[in-house]
Amino acid sequence: MSYTDAFFYFFAALTVGSALVVTFSRSVIYAAFALLFTFLGVAGLYVLLQADFLAVAQIMVYVGGILILLLFGVMLTTRVTNAEITTGTVQGLPATVVVGILLGTLILLVSRATWNVQESLPDVTGTTTEIGERLLTTFLLPFEIAGILLLVAIMGAAMIARSTDKTKEAA
Amino acid sequence: MPDIIFQSTKHFWPEITLALTFIAAMIFEFATKKRTTGTGILVLLGLAAALVQLPSAPSEPVSIFGGMYAIDPFSTFFKYVIIVTGMVVVLFSFQSQELKKESGHTGEYYCFIAAVTFGMVLMTGSSNLVMIYLSIELVSITSYILAGFSKSLRRSSEAALKYVIFGALSSGIMLYGMSLIFGLTGTLDLSGIRTALASGHAVTTGWSFAALMAAIVLMLAGFGYKVSVVPFHFWTPDVYEGAPITITAFLAVASKAAVFAVMIRFFYVAFFDNMLASTGVYSSFRNVDWSMILAVLSVLTMTLGNFVAIWQDNLKRMLAYSSIAHAGYMLMGVVVMSNFGLSAIMLYFVMYFFMNLGAFYVVMVIADKIGSENIDDYRGFGKRAPIISVGLSIFLISLTGLPPTAGFVGKLFLFSSVMASQFIWLAIVGVLNSVVSLYYYARVLKNMYLREAPDGDESPIVFSKVTSAVVILFIIPNILLCFFYQPVLTFAQRSIAILLPGL
Amino acid sequence: MDVLDIAIALIKIVVMFVVVLLTVAELVYTERKISAWIQNRVGPNRVGWLGLLQPYADVVKLLLKEDIVPAAANRFIHTLAPVISIGVAFSTLAVIPIAGPTITLFGRTVHMVIADVNVGILYVLALTSMGVYGLTLSGWASNNKYSLLGGLRSAAQMISYELSMGLSLIGVIMITGSLQLTDIVHHQHGWMWNLVLQPVGFITFLVASFAETNRAPFDLPEAEPELVGGYHTEYSSFKFALFFLAEYANMITSSAVITTLYLGGWQVPYLETFGLSDGWMVLVQILAFMLKVAFLLFFFQWVRWSVPRFRYDQLMNLGWKVMLPLAIANIVLTGALLLFL
Q: How far apart are CA C158 and CA A65, in angstroms?
């Protein structure tokens, strides 16, 4: 087992293990916290695949942005209102059966199917330039659409979060 | 590459107009902050500007942005349906009392309508999995916001929340399906997927084939969620009931049209093998039997939709289940994989546009008047509001698919296309379902005409002249299209050309 | 990569640690001295010559204190938070180049940077954004309203200013055409420092750095009059020392980053005309780098004792309505200049 393999298994275990904690933890704050390690694990996998830009972007966006906001929300709701948010399960048995079958099928398929794989990584020193060029040529259209999508999402979030005039009057 | 981009924008003007409309409306809204319908008018003009550019689309399929997007008569047809629906919804919204109660901010509402129309139009032409995903997300996220627009109404917020949760789940599942497809074929491009399948790659046999089928099923979860196909339909009644009714109408017509377009493109292009010019029947790769999966879903969808609709007392909710059932009918047209089936779906969408929007409009004006969507509150309406009642009756008869209405012609062609492709059992299920649907539509008619108002109140309910005029405007095509459907049919038949690989 | 390489890397890391720790100690001293001068006092002058050993006495005092964890606190996260803070502060320094030429040590070419990551700038930003965790989690885990408010404030503040920080950097990236910090420094040859080429970007970045390090006038997360001690109210002894250390280490890190990005890093104008050998060049450049960092550190402290603290809404307004548009305008301007010049 080479260094790379060892690192791969480490990051894979980190990702899957902490993802399991996210799923099964009853406390939302622990789940959010475990998610941090899932993201870091994924970033590590990106590094192993020589996707340096993606790895750092993953940390910046998910760890530095999304997860912080998530924690923010959880903290505000749990501590300020003194309500302990926990996650529970309903319909445990049917869900387990369905998910179990789905998981089994997917594991079976993923392990047996012939995948279109590249035998070795292309020899690249940095992906940033390439990604930048692709985004503005081949993937120009999706790139622009993603921009509009985010704009809509921001507007919507602002609209939902804004207090209506009525509640202002009441307060 | 820059050349390709500049070449591509030449065909992309309707979409660009829509995007600009959204941005202009947003800036206008920020700049004026007036609680007027100014933004709405701006959006209406923008949609109209996009609409008038559609006829100049090339008559031959063109692939632009390096295979990301397809401009073909097929997508253009759906663009017409979507943009016109968008305009009608904007017009309806001018009249809606429900929105006016929302203390201003209606400007943003119109911005979102522009954005969602843009997203739907993009869906019709997306020919790359990335584009398909992004455009579906654009439509979904905007729809979540619009569904929860009536913030003061509890049911509206509930609708938005349910929509988001189901939407997030199904889009995640679809993404997983996409990743499986990418893993198997090594490409995200629809025609590239087809090439990979055709190149004798091991995908069409053994475990890889099973993985491909699993990927298709997962993709169907995403598509099926958007058109509310049965195992993924749970959000539909609550969202349709909770959302502002204008949005419900929009979701029921335009959103469905867009998803049907993208779904047809996905299945027909990526798994396309050959098309017999004489019969117009497509064939799919020998094993990839996606049409059977769809046939089963179609039967489930229409049966469940129709049977559950029977128990509904809220007309909005009933129409939600009825729209589930209609999605089931239309899926039959996808199943048959023929040009006949395609043109039948397109024809059906035109009919569906008139009958569904008409019905939702009547529900909206009545709800604004009496503050209820309950079927029992419609008692005695036949006498109290004759024009509206006649209108609603015709729309519901049309939805059932009885002559002499547009719905009849739509169903006729849909069922014949299914018969022509030897799916006799499917056609029979469809017809039986239409019979079931007659029951619950007739219940509304019975309440309106055969029962007295609860307190014997026979005073006429006065609707404005505009309202009556709009209802009449919707009655006319519903009747006329039963007899003079030929131009629409011809147009639909001319619009079946999808951008296919290797043609 | 054999043992020697790893050993060299380890030596670099250890040297960096020791230097930063010593600097932090002296920073505490200078902070007190500078505040004393500004307020016309004498400042520490008893422990050692001119009071130079004062910080070490402080450390000993801190370590001898009892470590108190509030009863209802979350012990695990309470302990983890300062570790995150300090880890992030130190890790960033790994990509900062401190001299240009390479020197030969034990037959190996040694670069004057611990890790020359080719997405260096993004690495810095990613780690900066992780710094929020230390503060936020400590605030939450302490189970104290002052701590929580401090933690939340820090999260909101750092997220807001991270945006303008990242956007101000884009001008530098556009000029250099690389995300690698060594490239960026090489590009600032002679007097072509990014300070000269990107004055607006420099100012926005500098202000954002103040906010990111939670230094006055942006020290709202620990604003004493309102929040007692802010996020570290419930910390004592060694953990408090770690936070203290992290704050100053963060100052050093951001001074080093600003130096690298805008003040030409190790560049000394006209140095190559003297015809020095590589070894001497390295020495002079390291010295130059340290001087620049030292000046910025002094600047940080100067500002702290001269400028009053912002109010929270002023802080947010400044971040979103002034800094962000300025940073975006800077990008547009840089782009236009690059295109037309």
A: 10
Q: Do the chains contact at A109 and B108, CB–CB below 8 Å?
A: no
Residue that is last in its domain, among A34, A61, A88:
A88
For chains A and C, count residue pairs whose Cβ atoms are closer than 8 Å. 70
pLDDT, tens digit, for every residue of A114-167?
Answer: 787 777 777 766 778 888 888 888 888 999 999 999 999 998 888 888 766 554
- Measuring CA to CA, which residue among C198, C112, C218 is closest to residue C158? C218
Q: Which of B10, B11, B239 is nearest to B140 (CA)?
A: B239
CA distance B18 to B112: 11
Residue B50 has a CB neighbour count (10 Å cut-off) of 27
Q: Does the distance separating the beta carbons of A56 and C129 come in below 8 Å?
A: no
Q: Which amino acid is at C160?
A: S
Chain A positions touching B8 (Cβ under 8 A) are 141
Instruction: Report the candidate in C235, C238, C230, C234 with the shortest Cα–Cα distance to residue C214.
Output: C230
Length of chain C: 341
Contact B21/B42 with Cβ under 8 angstroms? yes
Paired tokens of C277: 């050998």
* Chain A nearest C-alpha distance from B21 (Å): 12
Number of domains in chain A: 2
Residue range C118-153, pLDDT digits in tens: 888 888 888 888 888 888 888 777 777 777 777 778
Q: Dump pLDDT digits (tens) for C219-254.
A: 766 666 667 667 777 777 777 888 888 888 888 888
CATH number of the domain residue A10 falls in: 1.20.120.1200
pTM of the predicted protein model: 0.88
Q: Which two tokens stand for residue A33?
A: 């916290």
Domain that holds residue A165: 127-171
> Complex ipTM, two decimals?
0.88
